[in-house]
Amino acid sequence: MYARLSQLSRHLSRPVPNYAHSAAAASRSIIRSNIMVSPEEKSKRKIHTAGCIIIGDEVLGGKTVDTNSAYLAKFCFSLGMNLKRIEVIGDDEGEIVEAARRMSDSYDFVVTSGGIGPTHDDITYQSIATAFGLKLVEHEDALKRMIRLAKPHPSQPNFKWDEPSPALEAKKRMIRLPIDTSRDEKDQVLFVNEDLWVPISVVNGNIHILPGVPRLFEKLLEGLKPRLVPRLTDPEGKGVYRLLFSTPMAESAVAPYLTELAARVEPKGIKVGSYPRWGKKRNSVTLVGRNKALLDSLIPEVEKNVQGIRVDREDQADESDDPDETNLG
To answer: Where is each MoaB/Mog domain found (predicted)?
Structure first.
């Protein structure tokens, strides 16, 4: 007993790692990074990485299903951007401020979705303005476009643009944008679709504020593409390639080979993935990378070792939809 107490005493007397010091050092590093990279630089540098912030209590509460992050993921993949993080946060100013600052510092291209409507809980613009010490400015061109392109709602038959009203004030919330008066405004407010009045507000050089409505989100994102392509690491737009294989083998059966394959090809820029398919007889294996010739050269080897075939879609080689035939392990 005394021996154990002695050991415990020695253990407790050991110096504790200074996590506070490490955190402070990390914080100073982030601050230095923000100082070194100006909004102007962020708006022009090559795009390697991307981040996404989905904003809305309705998403967190299960009322609305987020499809915008999935669309953005496919968009980034097609252009060869490495989407590193997707976060879902509520309509809370502190959460938006923290996420916007961190994402802007960490990734080359950042997209937010949601929280820019006419109601009291749409606080994305004002929160991101707060995050970077900016004021909200009523954008004249955006207002003109809204008047020209926005259709009056059937519930507002007497609404008039030239008469002050609570409804007009609510609509103007959507064109009061975070503006850095020290920078050229044309780089901060983008109109990428002639059929839409909705602008893309660009803050701190790399945060692109988009609406949460999927139809608008998708149209604006596609309209943004011509501005992004010249800044890609592969400006020809070849993007990233994905090979998909269908295998009848359990994941545990192919795991040893895939582990060896990953160790061999990941240093060459190819990622190896394995995905179970619940209720199906076949699982999926993927190879993802930029070197198409190298990827293609691996097809015969992978097909042999997973006893499968290359397919264009996961269900292409399914033999049965029998729910009793699960293939998870």
So the answer is: 51-231
pTM for the model: 0.77
What's the number of CA atoms in the CB half-sphere (13 Å) around residue 201?
28
Find the domain containing 288 and state its range.
Answer: 241-311
Whether 236 is covered by a domain: the verdict is no
Which of 231, 257, 276 is the last residue before a domain boundary? 231
When pLDDT is averaged across residues 29-50 and rounded to a whole number, the result is 76
Q: What is the pLDDT of residues 46-90, one digit of tens each?
A: 999 999 999 999 999 999 999 999 999 999 998 989 999 999 999
Asked if residue 254 lies in contact with residue 306, where contact means CB atoms within 8 angstroms, the answer is yes
Mean local confidence (pLDDT), 210-228: 96
CA distance 125 to 114: 10
Find the helix or strand (DSSP H, E) in which 246 lies.
Answer: strand 241-247
> What's the pLDDT score for residue 298?
97
For residues 293, 294, 299 and 302, what is the CA-based torsion angle, rounded to 10 degrees? -170
Whether 139 and 218 map to the same domain: the answer is: yes
Residues 200 and 269 in one domain: no
pLDDT, greater one: 33 or 307: 307
Task: Let me know whether 115 and 210 are in one domain.
Answer: yes
Q: Is 27 helix (H, G, I), strand (E, B) or coil?
A: helix
